[in-house]
Amino acid sequence: LALTEMSSPSLKIGAYILIGVGALTMLMGFLGCIGAVNEIRCLLGLYFTCLMVILITQVAAGLVIYFQKEKLKEEVFHVVSKLIENYDPSKEDQRNLEDVWDYVQTQIACCGWTGAKDWENNKLLINQSMTAYPCSCSNSSMNLQIESGFCNLDVPVNGTATHADWPVHEQGCMDGVEKWLKDNLGVILGVCTGVAVIELLGMILSISLCKNIHSEDYTKVPKS
């Protein structure tokens, strides 16, 4: 429920597309196996069609992400900003989503979407005069085992603290994610190309099987 309320329209559409592609892939594999084992042309034809639809969907999704990346970046910013603002470890209904964000901050070594300053909008931290900070943002070796919730400042601050007083990573997760994508671009493109090649091979094999079945059926027809 929390994820649905915080999702942007583009993210929802993307999630539905992934669900649809997953379901189609399962159906495709089932039809392909049955069609190949029993040499049923119509099932092999459906298998070919499913593979073609999946391949077209993947290409379309890639083009949408490329040409709409600025809009997607803006929508992700709004989603993450709302998540950070309402982050509360005591609320179980949004715990899963918060755990995902804590994991992102821990693994990428980042804090907030644009920077640690984003966390100054959190309601709980405001009530504590910013004398606490998100543990998953910590750059201190003492907090490596604490990957969620809030940690208290070790050094007392007179009055209200700011994100500059926190022992956290300076890099925002937006820059961290972009850097990760650039560093792993070759691997990502390689995987996508490999998947596309496998799908094309599946399409070619299904056509070949259909032709072989058609040839066998033709030879079995008695000549008048």
UniProtKB/TrEMBL annotation:
<dbReference type="InterPro" id="IPR018503">
    <property type="entry name" value="Tetraspanin_CS"/>
</dbReference>
<keyword id="KW-1133">Transmembrane helix</keyword>
<dbReference type="GO" id="GO:0005886">
    <property type="term" value="C:plasma membrane"/>
</dbReference>
<dbReference type="InterPro" id="IPR000301">
    <property type="entry name" value="Tetraspanin_animals"/>
</dbReference>
<dbReference type="InterPro" id="IPR008952">
    <property type="entry name" value="Tetraspanin_EC2_sf"/>
</dbReference>
<feature type="transmembrane region" description="Helical">
    <location>
        <begin position="44"/>
        <end position="67"/>
    </location>
</feature>
<keyword id="KW-0812">Transmembrane</keyword>
<protein>
    <recommendedName>
        <fullName>Tetraspanin</fullName>
    </recommendedName>
</protein>
<dbReference type="Pfam" id="PF00335">
    <property type="entry name" value="Tetraspanin"/>
</dbReference>
<feature type="transmembrane region" description="Helical">
    <location>
        <begin position="187"/>
        <end position="210"/>
    </location>
</feature>
<comment type="similarity">
    <text>Belongs to the tetraspanin (TM4SF) family.</text>
</comment>
<dbReference type="InterPro" id="IPR018499">
    <property type="entry name" value="Tetraspanin/Peripherin"/>
</dbReference>
<keyword id="KW-0472">Membrane</keyword>
<feature type="transmembrane region" description="Helical">
    <location>
        <begin position="13"/>
        <end position="37"/>
    </location>
</feature>
